[in-house]
UniProtKB/TrEMBL annotation:
Protein keywords: Hydrolase, Magnesium
InterPro entries per the UniProt record, alphabetical: HAD-like_hydrolase, HAD-like_sf, HAD-SF_hydro_IA, HAD_sf
Entry keyword Kinase: no
Cofactor: Mg(2+)
Name of one Pfam family that matches: Hydrolase
SUPFAM superfamilies found in the cross-reference section: HAD-like
Entry protein name: Putative hydrolase of the HAD superfamily
Gene Ontology biological-process entries: small molecule metabolic process
Gene Ontology molecular function: any one: hydrolase activity
Length: 212
């Protein structure tokens, strides 16, 4: 099982590229850009609320267009790391089934998967809006395993992601292994540790392949 944002794609870099262009279009400043990046909260701020906040910040009366930009405009700024595709293919060649488990809207997350070409390297995906469940709810990880055959597969599966709670602990709660992409951060001291820590997606896949 695989997280999407900041795991398979560098979502933060894409958002910053989009935000830089968007703030310039609105005639904003570097201060406005820093505000927007912080207000995004690593993608965890609900898009509707962020669109409303942008509207207030820049005096925009209509925020529907802002919401569309937030959900779709960033996708055009995604720059894929070739090693991600190579690692996905290595895992599939070794017999692993690959399912993305991601929070978000179906339209936005499927647009990312198809626009980047990731969809052609996966066995499927489970998106929170589509199943009415959000990570770290254990049932969303069970749904991912059901997608490829049986919920019983969960205890022999791995979850690779950058979120300590949503990805790693959510998956560990149902018996899956959790591999944390640290992205230069320290694991929260108050939390039980992940099964493995990796500095890159390719490194995380190496852990999975060695476990077989």
């Amino acid at each position: 099982m695989l997280d999407l944002d900041n795991t398979l794609i560098d979502r933060d870099a894409a958002f910053r590229r989009w935000a830089t262009s968007y703030v310039q279009t609105l005639g904003g400043s570097e201060t406005d850009l820093r505000w927007l990046v912080e207000a995004d909260r690593d993608g965890y701020e609900p898009r509707e609320q962020l669109a409303a906040a942008i509207g207030r910040r820049f005096g925009l009366r209509e925020t529907d267009a802002v919401l569309v930009e937030l959900r779709l405009g960033m996708v055009d700024r995604i720059e894929m790391d070739p090693t991600v595709f190579e690692s996905l293919d290595r895992a599939r060649s070794a017999g692993w089934s690959l399912v993305v488990v991601t929070n978000g809207t179906v339209s936005q997350q499927e647009h990312k998967l198809r626009a980047t070409g990731l969809d052609r390297h996966l066995d499927g995906w489970v998106i929170s809006e589509g199943v009415g469940l959000r990570k770290p709810d254990p049932r969303i990880f069970m749904a991912a395993c059901q997608l490829i055959g049986s919920q019983e597969l969960v205890t022999s599966s791995w979850m690779i992601g950058d979120a300590a709670v949503h990805d790693v602990h959510g998956a560990q709660a149902v018996g899956a292994g959790g591999i944390w992409l640290h992205r230069g951060r320290r694991w929260p001291a108050e939390m039980d540790p992940p099964d493995h820590v990796a500095s890159s997606f390719a490194g995380a896949v190496d852990v999975v392949l060695r476990s077989a």
